[in-house]
Amino acid sequence: MSLPAPTRNDEAWRYSDISAVAAAWPLPAPESIIVPAGGDFARTILQDIGSIHQIDIAIGKGAAAAVHILNIGGDYGRVELNVTLHAGADFKLGAVQIGGATQNLEIITTVTHVEPKATSSQIVRSVLAGTATGTYLGKVAVARDAQLTDSVQSVKAMLLDRSATANAKPELEIYADDVKCAHGCAIGELDAMGLFYLQARGIASADAKKLMLQAFVAGVFDGAADEDMLTDAALKKLGELV
Amino acid sequence: MLQITNLHANVGEKPILKGLTLSLKAGEIHAIMGPNGAGKSTLGYVLSGRPGYDVTEGSVTFNGHDLLALEPHERAAAGLFLGFQYPVEIPGVSNVQFLREALNAQRKNRGEAPLSGAEFLKVAREQAGALGMDMDMLKRPVNVGFSGGEKKRNEMVQMGIINPALAILDETDSGLDIDALRTVGDGINRIMRRPDKAVLLITHYQRLLDYVKPDFVHVLADGRITRTGGAELALELERDGYKELAA
Amino acid sequence: MSDELDMRDKAAWDAAEKVADYAHGWSSDIETDFAPKGLTEDTVRFISAKKNEPEWMLEWRLKAFALWKTMTPPDWAKLNVPPIDYQDAYYYAEPKAKPKLGSLDEVDPEILRIYEKLGIPIAEQEVLAGVEGARRVAVDAVFDSVSVATTFRAELERAGVIFRSISEAIKEYPELVKKWLGKIVPMHDNYFATLNCAVFSDGTFVYIPEGVRCPMELSTYFRINAENTGQFERTLIVADKGSYVSYLEGCTAPMRDENQLHAAVVELVALDDAEIKYSTVQNWYPGDAEGKGGIYNFVTKRALCQGRNSKVSWTQVETGSAVTWKYPSCVLNGENSVGEFYSVAVTNNYQQADTGTKMIHNGKGSRSTIVSKGISAGHSNNTYRGLVRVAPNAEGVRNFTQCDSLLLGSLSGAHTVPYIEVRNPSAQIEHEATTSKISDDQMFYAMARGLNAEEAVALIVNGFAKEVLQQLPMEFAVEAQKLLGISLEGSVG
Q1: ipTM exceeding 0.85?
Q2: A183 vs C432: CB contact, 8 Å cut-off?
Q3: In 3-state terms, chain A is what percent helix, strand and coil (to 5)?
Q4: Comparing C-alpha atoms, which of A87, C191, A193 is closest to residue B87?
Q5: Are B90 and A198 an interchain contact pair (Cβ–Cβ within 8 Å)?
């Protein structure tokens, strides 16, 4: 017996395209990745067809995992990561989602620090046009024993059209006192003065927007094995929106 | 080169320029001086097409073409350069990338071939060198983390690389120490003092005019040119203030 | 700070000192007239009859009661609350010797003695003693469930301000009450608000007429006194065009073993250019060091910034209650309306707090600021939960949110759950959150300057919460600073 499909009352699916989820239900078991102690893991996820990815990653003592996500395709695309960090482990996420028309794109992360001295860093950038919806639900949980956790979330979204929607929920659940946990979240539009500055130097409005958006997502894919592929795909998608 | 006739402009609902007339010929350097709130910066923004600055009456032609009909980037391609009073920070976009895109966009607009990376870098290196700017700064994001003086210097490097026909320099002297002022002044003379170019210097003080000698000085007050004279007018203004002379 | 303030400060501090574990943990001996135990339609009718309410009010209550029976308590908060037996409680109690008073001078001496013992209503005591130049504060004292006295009524009436218990207002100003009651927090809003609609015992009604700046700060001190009595207060403040009012709400409660339910509803309306400043110091009994007893505080507070340029500012210092479930919110409908939420929430021992705000931006150019400071000690859990929403047509919206958590000791929890939903590109929304502890260096530095550990913690915590505390009116700020220190007693070893 599989569980019934989620509804909007389920916290992790509150902004999802519920009919698309129901159509895909039941989902296969999440992919499970175990990074052994001292290991090094990297993964690139290009979601460009409208699919649901669920990945569990357990990062062993002193091991490191880096995940880069470009979420751009299909009517409904979801990438869900469930990450557990053991002592001294490190997790890095660099994610970009770009949506137009009626796309519903989401990135959901639960990053749990179960042991001391682990570090996690998540950077998520969303660009949304038309009536697209982009969602980031990111929970960082720090267990009682996970002292000296260092965790940071940087979440930014840019809306290009009225009625495009950006949702963000950078959540902290902290049970240890000696930790450094911070998140910052900003949602807005392209800086008008910046755009004018570019135009005053001879760059046409659409190109200026593209350049600003390119800057907005720049750096997220730094160090990814497929950096060029991801960057090119992101720029191509941006070009379609502007 | 530039003919402004009876220009009226609003910022939002508020009338700022109220019938400004001014004519610049190639080879001339004009200075516009005036008290705060007279409309000096507005003039620069109206000429370069900043959104929200609406012309309600009058005309502006640039080399015979209707300047006001052009988009901001088309005005740039036509050879107009605005030096910003407060140059804008653009995180994530490097100076080099910005300038190369800007220059090649202008060239394309004029039907010229784009510069290759090597060609561009050569020009950029020359101009940065002439203005005493480190190449490392050119690789940094546009104006991000620059001091006030560095931003103004960067505006001059950009002007050197873009090499416009008409430069409107809005309070380029503000925030500069005496050495930087000299460097910027030398830059303006080197790049712009040519028979086929013109400069409109917008300034509150006359100290930049010690380095860049204007052919004409205009007093802008309450949205109009109220007086015009030679370089000596600037000194008079410095001595007597605007109150005496504006009316 | 002036000598006078220092003196007040000391008097109140001394009063607090006299009580060992919990500063306000005692109960007084006033006979109580209870409604029959349990909650049925008859209870609702009893309350309404007891208050001589008009028929429309009874019908409204009965409708709410019928609705409530179909509802379930919300379960999304990060709170662990044992099931509440709503039939095992009293829903109405009033002091038997109900005085008919023209001023506070005539208040039952027993009640005055309690106020004195609390050391809290400092400004009010000065007013009572007729102190020359005392700060004007009008008090609508809610002792248990019934307003026993309202002062300064005459002066307020001269200004056209209506300041009444809500029971009186229902009878005297039915049209004004009908117009807004249940319009900001609808009857069906949530389980606890609906319950309040059915059984609210009393509360406060304020109306500030057009263009009037309320001549004094309005204040209500709440106390739960009777054993097993739910407290269901209802407050409605209407600020007409261009008016201003500052309202202070403070609570303390005596020590009891049984858990007591508190489900208040506060509704604020600000019309064009009106401003309401609503300040709360909440110090209900938090339970003992083992987590036994304490108030369950399920409060619904919401403001409707309906008019252009209207402004509502919520400031709260939450130190009490075993369970706090509270989200003072602003619905920003008016163009260029402003909503503010400044909060300090302290939890110690086994307290649980899930508190925050909602800023719903529907109006063009509306702006909001959220500053939340959570301090968790002992085995407690402290959650900030907030929502910032921008509607598609709301151009030029601005929000800034700062959520900081301070953890004292390694057995507590600090949580931040911000929801951000933006549908207009011109919005500028910024949210920042940090988590920290008091560093050993800070402690050592303060102690090297002569403070003991508890004083050092109180000092550092007050610094952490300063941004919020400075939003409070002066007499509240002094009290709030003391409360932070008292609430954290025993949190450092």
Answers
A1: yes
A2: yes
A3: 20, 45, 35
A4: A193
A5: yes
